[in-house]
């Protein structure tokens, strides 16, 4: 198994303002662009050649990763001029693959943090003789996901859209966003138009009698589609709950990158990440949060489960709890922002002017 496709073209709308200036896979998680963790895990599993299917802010990827040699990979980049959906994006990069028709090709979504045993998924694909194999995971409440029931051999029997009633919840297995395709199957996806693998390709293959195999792997799995999930994923990488060989430092309660300045009495806990060229002032408390490059947290600020964008400034004694602060924003002293509030890039909040919580 030497080839993979990474789908990194999404606009990351649910992650705004984090994705205003940065494509979703390039937002730092545990100190490096999230995509770095995916690439490193793929390489550790034996993948050597990866084609990145890009679209939104496509010009950002190649200058950062280059040809991939620093990661022991051969990377190529293909840009969609118009959004093609998951299936269309896969088909759009097919000409860059070197695999023979019967060879397996690994496919990842660029916003899933997972502990998936990649080699086991490939082995399942080979031993089952499947045309496509899917990573499935179990969730307590599957109503927000498409369900993927399987028979007692793991063969997929249906693809069910998000269930609305208890009777429709026939399984707790969902599509976890990683696949192995035989190369020949990729070539059957219609070219030049939007195609969804979830809504068109997979159901169509099943209807045509193709063999789709599911492998349930219920290790760590998190969709990083929302700011709150992204912050949690970053913290879990630092804490060691989510596996990655790309975390730039020892796992533990905190990760402070080189060139950051942290006051001796500042308290950093819960997997907090402090990026390069950041400044954390005296007496500040940060728990389960991420502070991106060049941001400043002034003395006495208290920050929990929040993300501070690059170059932002948080005023003295300000409290953030579950907040997302866009790049370059300025939050004055003695403010209180809670419960998922998002402050846009370059916004300015005067001192003592804002108190936001769910009970007000």
From TrEMBL:
List, for all copies, the residue spans of the domain called Mannose-1-phosphate guanyltransferase C-terminal: 253-332
Database matches in InterPro entries: GMPPB_C, Mannose-1P_guanyltransferase, NTP_transferase_dom, Nucleotide-diphossugar_trans
Q: Which CDD domains match?
A: NTP_transferase
Superkingdom per UniProt: Bacteria
The UniProt record lists the Nucleotidyl transferase domain at 4-236
Question: What family does the entry list?
Answer: Belongs to the transferase hexapeptide repeat family.
PANTHER family, sorted: SUGAR-1-PHOSPHATE GUANYL TRANSFERASE
Q: What is this protein called?
A: NDP-sugar synthase
Q: Whose protein is this, by species?
A: Streptomyces siderophoricus
